[in-house]
Amino acid sequence: MTETDKAGGLLAQIPKGEGKGLPPVHLWNPDFCGDIDMRIARDGTWYYLGTPIGRKPMVRLFSTIIRRDGDDYFLITPVEKVGIKVDDAPFVAVSVVAEGEGEQQRLRFLTNVEDEVEAGAEHPIRVVLDPATQEPSPYVHVRSNLEALIGRNVFYQLVELAVPREIDGQTWLGIWSGGEFFPIGPQS
């Protein structure tokens, strides 16, 4: 079976929904069928056999059946589980809308695959600093144990919304959403 046959067969196995949400991949435990040559780049571009997947509806469809088990990512159907590579996070937050202000502020993110999440207790924001460069990599939880890397332009919008708050004797800049405060960096 060729790589192209594997991807086409995987698509055929995705249950047809009635617009009622995402497939229950967390409930499916099919046999592992090996890895396929599919990769999600840090910028959110999906590649198959080294070529970008240009059809956005196909990327959206694949994005609904992705699951992370430990550090590994898989595309899952009720009868098949294939491994894929993810350079950083499987999604990228490409826009944010802020409503309200202060502790009442709500931040709604849209990802490159059209998932919408509101940051809060169920969808926390976290920032990882590169130990060598101190460059931030911000993320928002999307679903299960899947995150979206917050795009640079979106992160700059969050920085504009940041307010100082004392945490354990140190002043942090952070953002409020859904009644939660998310530190994004120490105040210098």
From TrEMBL:
A Pfam family of the record is: DUF1285_C
UniProt cross-references to InterPro entries, sorted A to Z: DUF1285, DUF1285_beta_roll_sf, DUF1285_C, DUF1285_N
Family matches, as Gene3D superfamilies: 2.20.70.10, duf1285 like domain (3.10.540.10), duf1285 protein (2.30.270.10)
Which ranges carry the DUF1285 domain?
23-89, 90-184
Q: Which domain of life is it from?
A: Bacteria
Q: What is this protein called?
A: DUF1285 domain-containing protein
Classification lineage: Bacteria, Pseudomonadati, Pseudomonadota, Gammaproteobacteria, Pseudomonadales
